[in-house]
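As the work plan foresaw, the team has encoded backbone shapes as discrete tokens. One protein thus recorded appears below exactly as we store it.

:::
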Amino acid sequence: MAGIYADFDESIPRYGCTHCSNCNSLFGASLCKVKNRGCCFYFPKFTLVDIHNMCQSMEGLQVLFKIIINPGTEIYRYYIHAKGYFDEKGYNKYICEKHYTIDGYVNSCFINYMNELSSVERLHEIQDQTIFFRSCAFVKEGYGCTIPSKYRTYICNLFLCSEVVDSIKHFKSYENYIKERDSYMRWLNWENENLKHLLRDNSLNLIDNLDHIIKLFHELPLEVYEFPKLEPIESEENLSPNI
């Protein structure tokens, strides 16, 4: 049985799944050195809204500093991209040896792994197969994300893998999860554009004026989105535990 729920870290919403600790999702398969990293293959892009939120407290500023000093972090004019680990050599070997089809891939251990997950046929649906060789810079193996939920990106907080979605999409209440997520994302985009205009009007950007922006954002009141409480969804469908 898989349960889906929405909870909050202060005012920031997060979708959770009770089955994550026994993940069998294709998105959770890892061929990089960080084996037990779940679906944390994404390299997060922190928007101006995220940065504004971090600048409101000392805890948030410590998180922002952690993001900035990450070796793979790249600062752009209006967002920060925190790149993590990517086994490029392993990925190139994987692509070369399998010739873009799983049938030609010589690593029998990986084929056995995917067979046990009943995922070989679904592998062809994944266009970007670098995900198997990537890991977020802030995930700790066997623990999860080391950044508090209230400072994560909305993608990290509201992601649901396709296997979980397939098990709950027939519930009418699932529509509420999608509708509210879409509304929240539109609001975030609106707020981000407002902050971008503010910086442009003052000839500021994150590359050249990071310290100035941190001070500005610290003094700028934070807009709070009232994300509604959603009823949990419990599916009777069993999701096989990971190997």
Remarks:
- Residues 172-201 form the longest helix (30 residues).
- The chain has a mean pLDDT of 85.
- Strands lie at 2-9, 12-17, 45-46, 73-75, 80-82, 85-86, 134-135, 139-140, 144-145, 233-235.
